[in-house]
Amino acid sequence: MTTFTLYELNSLVRQTIEGSMDQDYWVDAELSECRESRGHCYMELIQKDEFSNTPVARASAKCWKNTWAMLQPHFERITGQPLHAGLKVRLKVYPQFHEAFGFSWIVTDIDPTYTMGDMARRRQEIIKQLKEEGVFDLQKELALSAFALNIAVISSETAAGYGDFVNQLADTPFDFHTQLFPAIMQGEQVEQSIITALNRIYQQQTELFSSPFDCVVIIRGGGATADLSGFDTLALAENVANFPLPIITGIGHDRDESVLDMVSHTRVKTPTAAAQLLISNIEKTQHQIETCEERIAHYAQSRIEIEQLRLARLSEHIPPLFSLVKARQEALLDRHLQTIASHLQRTLEKEGHRLNLLEQRAQALDPTLLLKRGYSITLHNGKLLRDPLQVKPNEEIETRLEKGTIISIVK
Description:
With 411 residues, the protein is α/β, with parallel strands linked by helices. It contains nine helices and 14 strands.
């Protein structure tokens, strides 16, 4: 049996591959890893079992610098995002085996429409599930406060879009208050980072002594080449859809709406547009208040004028009405005086007659009349004596007669 050196055996493999697989092949796979180094792109390809999600095939792929310089901008322009782990891709490759570095597929072309189709399919699956859960339109049912001035902002602290948003609000006469909840807005950590920020906002919103927020704004800068796949996930969409405050998205891209945009309360394209939305909301409220103030002032002025006219008409009727009332009251007073005088006269006559009767009774009871009739009155110690037993022997009694008084000593 012939024995080969490793280099000889690898050379035999290379010659076999080059001889039997001398053309390019289109392959569908998922990226498990994708990185750039010195202008080259290095990929790890994977295929998972349809039912168990277990990897059933793996391979390495490379796209050399000259080719990658043309394929990268084309792919990102079409899909709106760079190649990254988790994307489904269709690559045009040919096999290469190197004695020192082993086997890899060399990428010569990428079909962005395949990735777009897979992204669209996944988005439709997420949208379908959200609708089946009954949460897809929950945010639309919330009302943005007419006085939305306290804003919770989810963004990268260093993003230019965040600075533009804050500066635009600050340049208004309105008293906006913003609080930043920093989050990663690009790459694979977008989903969990934004969910964490939402949880922090909710926690602060429910604290006893904290100032409540009126709405949440999720903003970021970026253009067509930005990585937006993190905004098309089920977990993030469910968190946003079920959030109790209106959420405004200004992610800053021109392609079709992300799932996050679809389930949010209001979607605008850029952070500055989100700021303008809030400013317009307050301006509308201010206009309504000013309109109401004008209406109230107009109504009050009109009412004052009406009441002044009514008072003027009433004042014209006051003198004759006063004379009439005065005459009526004077006549009523005269009648009352006559009634009082008549009643007083009758009372005086009645009381005078009663006094006469009392006088006659008093005269009839006058003791001098009794004395004139021959009767006498006996007094003891100045008091009328009625009982002889009241007098002791040797005591003095006084007897009054019509013509004089007799003093006697009792024996």
